[in-house]
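Interim report to the steering committee. The following record documents the input for DUF1129 domain-containing protein (272 residues).
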Amino acid sequence: MTVVEKLIERNNELRNLLTVENKEYYEQILIYIRTKSFFHDDLDIEKVLLEILQDILEAQKNSEKAVDYFGDNPQKMLDNILSQLPKISFKKRIGLIGIVFAISSGFSLFSTLTSTQPSINFLSLFFNGMISFIFVELIFHLINQQTFKPYKNKKREYFFAFCISFIFIGLTFLSNHFGGIWLSLSVPPYTGLTITWLAILILTIWVISKRKKDYYHIIFSLAILNLIPTLLKIPYFNSLVDSTIHKIIFIVFVLLLIYGSQFYYLKKEQKK
């Protein structure tokens, strides 16, 4: 377990000692800081969050509420704290952007390789990566801006979030549609599936070796999604889902497996 993971675990433990009101207030602080510290070092951020939590616990011992201790609008104080923290190096910033880019491009590649006519669309991979990074930045900004606002004042932000999501889906669709026209490489069906299964295997080995239990449900979902086109390549199975009703049952079953695993993971996280 890394130092950052230990700090997060300690934070989770201490947070349970807060009163309901103080916990709600602190979690707003937590969201505000984490959504505004994309280019800050994780260790510095977790140390700050733990210090703030300890301050609130100390105030709580003295029968003082967190809102009285830090005020109704702690944004200015939090911004001041963040401004004093050093930002990560340019190299690490590129690395973070690369991670978002790689995840988005990876899902796009996974989708095209498991389609009925598998291919590698290089332009789509590039555009989807860029679109995803901008989308993540905008969503983080919106979440950050509406953190301390009353619910009735958040409607505009929710509308903007909906619009951004709609635009994101539209741009991704256009990228996938037009990106396949140029710089597209066709891949034999079984080669595409072999690549995706190999990628899942490598990811599984990495997750197990690093003991990243939080990623188990992701691997499970990817395996299920990859299993569908694999099974459809088998003539016998293909005949089983030939009718419309069988296809619907199969799709519902797959969705239940995927969303069921996600729900189980979220419920498990809530109990921590």
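The mean pLDDT is 81. The committee is asked to note this result when reviewing the revised timeline.
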